């Protein structure tokens, strides 16, 4: 009997049973991480509430497990490699849920290759440990593969067959969102998808269900009335309005246009329960008071999503209208396109030179590829910057250095400039950034994250004031659009729960125009209206698309999923009168045409 048992445990059948057990445990672990380490909720999900979805997720993981095992040629090595990968995925998901209140998406896995960013987030010791583990596993996998070549012919045949079958199955799984996918149909029998809230979507369908839901998908669903004729009518209607507006702009001098997306720049005092002493934004408030527009900008996310806000501000397109699985256009859509209409192409058509500046590495969010798609003439990253001073050893390149880089670009050419700066100084982590902060947060006096963040935005405010004063010496007028991309993910849960959702999504912004001394208006705005704001100013010709944005902005100045600012109040949904609904529908048609359609409306973005 013992001999038979020894023989059995060496067979692929025993290894397959062990893999199945490992997969069930790993799927429970992923659910545990998704449920914020609540054994009660994870157990209820797996064995009571959603057992069918739990088993479907386990089936996908089992295919993945056997795929890795077949490559390594060893159940022990394959399961170890698989297990450590799942362990790290669960931890990463829990961290993202903690920092940004949203789960890991399939596209986030590409971030593993962002070594510099990982080092900054994890710190040098943890990053070094991560590298050691990763390299060790890889070398062990290679050695196991080499050793497995000596297995018997029968083992090799079974192994190759398993590799082939699991490869085909994984390819099929990757098309989860395609019509008639059998796995998706199996989920649909019991799953209630919640696309407007990915956090709830993962909770309701399980980590694996939510993860699969966010696999590759078209950018937008096709509107029912989409056609070439419909698009051409929209183009003609708004081109007439653009031509009329441009008649008065023929002789006006073109200004230099500067976009500044300031990392995590926001007003802590806007949150109920947070009081900062003294006011870290005292200088900023003075600077913003000179703007023709100022107030709060509605960010898509809390604690992250920088690239999505940047996408909105450059293109004029809303993330809220994209399919929920299109979580990051910068990595999922734009690198695959040769070109994409944006404020960059609009201004280049008016003889502007265009420059992107980001005091970090070029690979983050694939900006190097994305900026080429947008048509930027040049991209200055941290390695190309002349000014690289930092405010602290643990910090990033300062905003003052970044602003000085902008000033250098302005001086290098007589042509009008469009400069798009994405700053890094105020990026997390904040804990050890400064030895001492000049600011104190009542009720959270020992929280160095909050006090150092307050110090950060104060430094940014002073650097911004100096920068604007220096631009006033330029011969050419200046139009500056400054905004914070999102709130930092440093506030205690008690504060987040105390505030309405929209409050945690509002950052600061202002628009400064050296040619316009009109007293500034205070209003809430979405970043996708910024291109329209730019093209409505003196010296810059507007476009048919900008006119469409302008008209929509008049009645719906800000919106994201479940956050619509309409009639001076926040609503979860909005019902529009006939005229406004027509404009809203036209905007969605144009966005679909460019994102997923036939691109009939390309000329709408040219003056």
UniProtKB/TrEMBL annotation:
Domain of life: Bacteria
Domain Sulfatase N-terminal: 255-530
Annotated Gene Ontology cellular component terms: plasma membrane
Pfam families, alphabetized: Sulfatase
Chief localization: membrane
Pathway: Cell wall biogenesis; lipoteichoic acid biosynthesis
Membrane topology designation: Multi-pass membrane protein
Keywords: Cell membrane, Membrane, Transmembrane, Transmembrane helix
Protein's cellular compartments: Cell membrane
Transmembrane parts of this sequence: 12-30, 54-73, 80-101, 121-146, 158-176
PANTHER family cross-referenced by the UniProt entry: LIPOTEICHOIC ACID SYNTHASE (PTHR47371), PHOSPHOGLYCEROL TRANSFERASE I (PTHR47371:SF3)
Name the record gives this protein: Sulfatase N-terminal domain-containing protein
Originating organism: Vagococcus carniphilus
